[in-house]
Design brief:
159 residues, two-stranded parallel sheet, three-stranded parallel sheet, single chain, mainly alpha, 2-enoyl-CoA Hydratase, Chain A, domain 1
Amino acid sequence: MQKKEEHGEAIAKSMFEMAKLKVPIISIVIGEGSSGGALAIGVANKVFMLENAIYSILSPEGFSSIMWKDSSRVEEAAEKMKLTAKDLLELKVIDKIIKEPKEETKECFDKITNDIKKDIISTISELNKKTREEIVEDRYNKFRNMGEFKILNKEKEKC
C-alpha cells in the first residue's frame, strides 16, 4: 500500500505533467469529485459540472471531523466548503454548470448525455483555434485565478 506522502506526490506529479500538456483538457464532474484526485482534474482548460454534483478535495464529513472533531456538523461543513456547482462557478473553479432534469428517466439521461456531447464538441472546436502555447498558458492562468481571497480583519490591511 502506498504511503500518504507518496500518494500526494503522485497527485502533484500528475498535476505538473497535465499542466504542461499542449492539447486541450476538458474535465466533467458528474457525481462526487473528491479527494486529492479532485485537484488533478482541476488542471484543465475547461471544467464542467452537473448541477447536483459536488467537487472538493475533502468530504464534508471529513472536514467536520478535522475542523470541529464532530462529524455531526456535516451540513455546516458543506456550506463552508463551497462545494456546489453554483458556489464553484462563482469562485471560477468551474466554467459551466450542466443543468439536470428533475426526473430520472432514460429520456432525461439521453438529454443530459447529448448536452454534454454538444458542450464537448463546441469546446474542443473553440480550443482548437488556439496555438499549443496558448492552450498551456490559458490553462495556467485559469488555475492561478481560481477562487477568491478576502481580508477578514481590517487591521490586516495595514500590513
